[in-house]
Amino acid sequence: MEPIILGIESSCDDTSAAITKGDTILSNVIAGQKVHEEYGGVVPELASRAHQQNIIPVVHKAMKDAGVKTNDISAVAFTRGPGLMGSLMVGTSFAKGFALARKIPLIEVNHLQAHVLAHFIQETDQKHAVPEFPFLCLLVSGGNSQIVLVRDFLDMEIIGQTIDDAAGEAFDKCAKVMGLPYPGGPLIDKLAREGNPDAFEFSKPAVANLDYSFSGLKTSFLYFLRDHVRKDPDFVEDNKNDLCASLQKTIIDILMEKLVTAADQTGIKEIALAGGVSANSGLRKAFRDGKKKYGWNIYIPKFAYTTDNAAMIAITGLFKYRKKEFVGQDVAPFARMVI
Question: What is the structure's pLDDT at 127?
């Protein structure tokens, strides 16, 4: 009989709970936090307080939507890290309490590893193809930009990563400079669709190996706007769509150039995309172009599994459950973790 896993995700500003039976998702509930919008970014203390308010209602709804009771749960999987410590503590504490009360296994999950394994989530009404091992995964989110070599479900190696800002940070910080509200990434994506991606040119960093850097681009963008606004105070407003399109193209070009190099060096043609920035329409198009140009087999997650969600935590919990990789009640969250 397939195990039923309760997944708990609370690494940043989304409280999420999900139920899986085997590799099939039965429910995936997410409660966002609007409180951070007026501050232009996530406020850790406010995030942890919101998690405390949301965790029980979210788990209750996930179980109700899945049609399962507490006695049906085989194990609890939770995000141990990386993330905001206060937020992680809420999810960790709830998971430990639930597992202790039900006398069921407790499974810790690496949030980054879970983003990669989100590709193996199946749905009851629609089965989809999954990557074959080994595959490369471009993991791009607000805090991470990595190229991951995936040899097996729980055997991963980072072969390229950002040395400073991540792609998601570049989107959000440049959006803030333009006066756009937080989170800026999705809005840049929307405005970019109406702009000319070749209208402006921004610097691309020269970084060795397969690593990334986005801090230079952020600085270049800031100085570019500063110089043009001096001449024309309405420059940003009059060129917003073109600015967004050109910025987005630059970020995507940086990401894809290293990914193409990684695919050439490894000879791997199974290429996956994961993380919050994988929702970006321009990046998804670049992957489809890569399929045509390089003969890749590409895997792009559904929008529901790109952001922080508990479905990816539960599916990772499944693979650990099968190997009996459980943790004790003394487990503690870590703000920083690597795959």
Answer: 84
- The tally of CA atoms less than 13 A away on the side-chain side of residue 43 is 12
SS3 label, residue 93 = helix
The tokens describing 92, both together, are: 């960790």
Residues in the chain: 339
Distance CA(147)–CA(152), nearest Å, equals: 15
Backbone angles phi, psi at 139, to 5 degrees: -105, 110
> What token pair was written down for 309?
């969600």
Residue 303 has which token pair? 């929008």
Rounded CA gap, 308 and 45, in Å? 18
d(CA 184, CA 175): 5
- DSSP type of residue 70: G
Q: Which residues of the chain have pLDDT under 70?
A: 33-41
pLDDT at 203: 87
d(C-alpha 338, C-alpha 80), whole Å: 11
pLDDT at 30: 95
pLDDT of res. 39: 60
- Asked, as a colleague might, if the bond just before 44 is cis with ω within 30 of 0, I would say no
For residue 25, give the 3-state DSSP assignment: strand
What is the value of pTM for the model shown? 0.94
Pairing of strands 15-21, 4-9: antiparallel
Read off the pLDDT of residues 286-312 as tens digits, 9 standing for 90 and up: 999 999 999 999 999 999 999 899 999
